[in-house]
Amino acid sequence: MRNISNFIQQELHGWKKWEIAWMIFCTAAIIILSLILQDNWLGILSALTGTWYALWAGKGKVSCYFFGMINSFSYGLISYQYQLFGEVMLNWGYYFPMMFVGLFFWRKHLNKKQEIFKTKLNWQGRLILAAASAAGIILYALLLKFIGGRTPGLDSLSTVLSIAAMIMTVKRCVEQWFLWTVVNIASIIMWLRIYLTEGGAVASLLMWCIALANGIIFYIQWSKEVEND
User: Fold this and answer.
1) Shortest CA distance to 49 belongs to which of 95, 81, 85?
2) Model confidence over 72-92: pLDDT tens digits?
3) Residues contacting 10, CB < 8 A, separation 6+
4) 206 contacts 28 by C-beta, under 8 angstroms
5) Using one digit for the tens of pLDDT, what is the confidence trace for 25-70?
6) Which residue of 53, 103, 197, 213 is surrounded by the most CB atoms within 10 Å?
């Protein structure tokens, strides 16, 4: 019990006032708007854990992966209901096991504040990442179209870049936040289409809107920290 208590204290240590205020705002916005627009409990749970995962990951806290485990399962279930098969395979087949991988590797690279050391790719690494991502997007879009996916282009873009971004997350690279920003934009478009045509999925749409803001904030913040190291 003492080890658990110490771990919780470490994960809650070092938060700035604006970070806490932003976390409270994001949480309240998801709950209030989702209830007003009558989304279900699964959508709210997925949106909250997805948002908390991003916030804790941005802070460099290993506990982000516990939120990520819950989000991977719940968001995959929602995606299945809306026939977003790429998102389902991504969350259940890739994200969920990668949460354990990330937890394992992040715990090996913590500073005195119990936050991870951040890194960045060189230009060669960035070119390889861009080329591999482009090829993956094209090939996966063709597969999704073949199996009857709903939005194969956006679904493929979101899925392939999410895979690349998750690898960059585990490697603690600042480039992850650029990739997540592109993923967030694609996901907003995808869920906005669903909301406008079918209604529902409000919490998921809100989650991706907040994730877009988080991606931009953490890209700037991580870039400054890496440059100062």
Assistant:
1) 95
2) 999 999 888 887 777 788 899
3) 114
4) no
5) 999 999 998 888 788 889 899 999 999 999 999 999 999 999 999 9
6) 53
